[in-house]
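Researcher: Sequence recovery benchmark, item below. Answer with residues only.
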């Protein structure tokens, strides 16, 4: 499908654009931090153009040099060297590849390392910020945890490792300084799995969450700065195509829940803040309370009695109120906040500190 979707920290929204890249098979995205744009890398037999996304529009680039046609490849941004690195994939009529390419913002350059991993497909790469190195893992069904140093690939050969697999989800968690791997298509017998592993810089350690997404492959994993957690989206098995979203909340996976919209400053009734909290408490998953209260300026909610205790994971996102905007400066506060929660109508004898979080609400923001 030739569609573009944006995740805002609470839900996906489809964008209506004048130009989209064509429908691709197993495309790959990498964020180029130096040039502040997303690079769309290949994906099928439709050409070797490179597309970039600036947050508003897609632009097609025809560089003088490009990798050959392929899909099922992987690419990631090497923050230390300020290059997007691509490795391997599948070329129709040829098979799997093990070539290495780098994108400098204008063209692709093939690198000829003396040591390189075997040809593979369905592998993943992420930049390990804690150790300032680019890590590649997996591939259907190729072994190894590999580091790209800009000249050569180095096999880390850890003592422990997930089973050989491809089409898994992998993301770097900067808060915990670990790389997280979930699921994929694994040996033996090409089974779909739902295990969770973390790379600490020298070894893979399996974790055992109380809850996990279903067995799957082809999912996407990224770190979501809005929720401060690793996000896992989509994937499929032999029967199902999953459209769900999960967050790794510490050592547990929490499924994203429902958006509850506050549309009035009234204390009770449909569209109230009170009703949104009650609904989030009774709904499964990690819900989001959003705001769409009519009127200009600051909207003030004044509870007449204590609001319900928050007992389930929930994000209360005041930036969703029309006209609000988050902070964009590193040295000053320039956010625009248009939702005010005012407890002045509550009796001082009630000693209400504000929003009350109780057991079960871990992960609320």
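Model:
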């Amino acid at each position: 499908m030739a569609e573009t979707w944006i995740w805002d920290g609470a839900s996906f929204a489809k964008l209506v654009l004048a130009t989209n890249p064509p429908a691709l098979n197993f495309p790959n995205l990498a964020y180029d931090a130096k040039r502040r744009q997303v690079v769309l890398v290949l994906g099928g037999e439709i050409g070797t153009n490179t597309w970039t996304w600036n947050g508003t529009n897609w632009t097609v680039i025809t560089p003088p040099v490009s990798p050959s046609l392929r899909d099922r490849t992987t690419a990631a941004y090497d923050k230390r060297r300020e290059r997007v690195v691509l490795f391997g994939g599948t070329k129709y009529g040829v098979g799997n590849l093990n070539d290495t390419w780098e994108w400098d913002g204008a063209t692709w350059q093939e690198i000829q390392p003396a040591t390189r991993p075997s040809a593979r497909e369905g592998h993943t790469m992420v930049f390990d910020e804690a150790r300032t190195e680019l890590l590649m893992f997996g591939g259907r069904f190729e072994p190894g945890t590999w580091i790209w140093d800009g000249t050569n690939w180095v096999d880390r050969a850890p003592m422990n490792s997930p089973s050989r697999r491809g089409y898994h989800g992998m993301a770097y968690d900067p808060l915990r300084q670990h790389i997280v791997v979930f699921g994929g298509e694994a040996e033996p017998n090409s089974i779909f799995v739902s295990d969770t592993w973390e790379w600490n810089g020298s070894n893979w350690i399996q974790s055992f969450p109380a809850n996990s997404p279903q067995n799957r492959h082809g999912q996407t994993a990224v770190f979501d700065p809005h929720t401060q957690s690793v996000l896992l989206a989509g994937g499929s098995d032999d029967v199902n195509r999953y459209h769900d979203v999960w967050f790794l909340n510490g050592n547990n996976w929490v499924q994203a829940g429902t958006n509850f919209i506050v549309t009035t400053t009234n204390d009770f009734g449909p569209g109230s803040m009170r009703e949104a909290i009650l609904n989030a408490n009774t709904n499964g998953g990690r819900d989001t309370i959003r705001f769409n209260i009519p009127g200009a300026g600051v909207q003030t909610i004044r509870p007449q009695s204590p609001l319900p205790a928050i007992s389930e994971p929930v994000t209360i996102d005041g930036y969703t109120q029309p006209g609000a905007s988050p902070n964009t400066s590193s040295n000053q506060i320039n956010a625009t906040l248009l939702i005010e929660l005012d407890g002045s109508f509550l009796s001082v004898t009630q000693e209400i500190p504000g929003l009350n979080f109780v057991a079960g609400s871990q992960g609320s923001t």
